[in-house]
């Protein structure tokens, strides 16, 4: 039986109507029609984050909601698909960009697993003309790179779907940016991409199967140009299967090839990448921190959307909190989560092993559950173990680190004091940190505009030694030690 699925839209008042058949899964109808939504567990019914309000010919729970991935259409029905837009960090630290003096327009894109930031650049002057950001449309296939890879490896069609989703999003971004800059009659000469190694392979159409199993060999690592979907594209160089072109770009933007201080770069996104430079040597690693700090796998977790609790501060015998844009609390994002766990640990509501008795309610509807503490524990131990192992490779103590760059939206928003107090970051670096925003975005702009920057990035990439944490003999012990809350 043919039926109609109506999607309520509050953005412009235009509802969307989709043709479907009774018996089809809601998830499949939305995905087939290119409707974007979040499905952190890849549609397996485990995360509960694809819940929407629904009515009509569709079964709902008592509260009138259903899971997109678990619900089948029975007849004409309506869903309120009023997804909030996540705050995406697009600013960095580089103010002036050198160019090779080519006339024309270029697009620089930092393709993250969760979000994509895109910049329109004047290739002659190096000026940024406009910028935009969006959620990665691939997120309906899962929150992390592993789910995306698993999906890609099922069939050639799936791989093409993932690739198409990125390019459709980038085409849309290009159109928006040209319009914003008042240059709709012009075209883009060259696009440059940075991203983790999996995103780079999916965006460039290269075979990503080598990244799905040990020893995680990428199809390409060196930066190069290529024609993708009929467009000229520059692909930033990747260090390894799990340290991608975004890290190389961030190192370039932070000037890792200049000066002689001991410097640490930490980029906590859907995964965590860490680079340490000491006495001309470069060590890097990728930490399987998982997407907990982006709100996935946390009971009331959410991205950095309006209403997300982003900070919690101890006040007298209690606490206060803030939400993004002062909206009614609707969930908790990574920075709020770290503050809340730090508060609970300080007040002994969490013991050193991470055990917590009852739920901790921050507001009527947002709480931290004991299982959330476990997720944070695993994520923070992964990052802390990564830092510890890189320092031991370089044979330095934390006190010898001169500067720490925290990249990414999360790194820019967290309270460093809270992160240090729960052992996510070493206490010794608390007063040495600088937020560098979307340094990867800056680094890919630099490479879009100048061959000299491409050469510098390539040199950094070649010099950087990848450390596979799980292959380190004492990794398990270090990881276990770092699970503790002191
Ligand atoms: S529960 Fe539906 S995507 Fe996770």
Q: In terms of topology, how is this protein built?
A:
Elements: E1 2-8, E2 16-21, H1 26-32, E3 51-58, E4 65-67, E5 73-80, E6 105-111, E7 115-122, E8 128-135, H2 145-154, H3 156-180, E9 188-195, H4 197-204, E10 224-228, E11 231-235, H5 245-253, E12 263-268, E13 272-278, E14 281-287, E15 308-315, E16 318-323, E17 331-332, H6 334-346, E18 360-361, E19 367-368, H7 370-394, E20 403-407, H8 408-413, H9 416-421, E21 433-437, H10 439-449, H11 451-463, E22 464-466, H12 475-482
Parallel strand pairs: 1-5, 6-9, 9-11, 12-20, 14-22, 15-17, 20-21
Antiparallel strand pairs: 1-2, 3-4, 3-5, 6-7, 7-8, 10-11, 12-13, 13-14, 15-16, 18-19
The structure holds FE2/S2 (inorganic) cluster (FES).
Summarize the structure in words.
It is a single chain. The strands form five sheets. The chain has a six-stranded mixed sheet, sandwiched between helices. Strands 21-20-12-13-14-22 form a six-stranded mixed sheet, with helices on both faces. The protein has a five-stranded mixed sheet with strand order 2-1-5-3-4, covered by helices on one side. The chain starts with a strand and ends with a helix. The model has no long low-confidence stretch (mean pLDDT 90). The chain has helices at residues 26-32, 145-154, 156-180, 197-204, 245-253, 334-346, 370-394, 408-413, 416-421, 439-449, 451-463, 475-482; strands at residues 2-8, 16-21, 51-58, 65-67, 73-80, 105-111, 115-122, 128-135, 188-195, 224-228, 231-235, 263-268, 272-278, 281-287, 308-315, 318-323, 331-332, 360-361, 367-368, 403-407, 433-437, 464-466. Helix 2 crosses helix 3 and helix 7 packs across helix 12 (475-482). It is α/β, with parallel strands linked by helices. 52% of the residues are buried. Among the domains are: 2-80, Beta-grasp domain (Ubiquitin-like (UB roll)); 105-251 and 441-446, 2-Layer Sandwich (Nucleotidyltransferase, domain 5), CATH 3.30.420.480. Bound molecules: FE2/S2 (inorganic) cluster (FES).
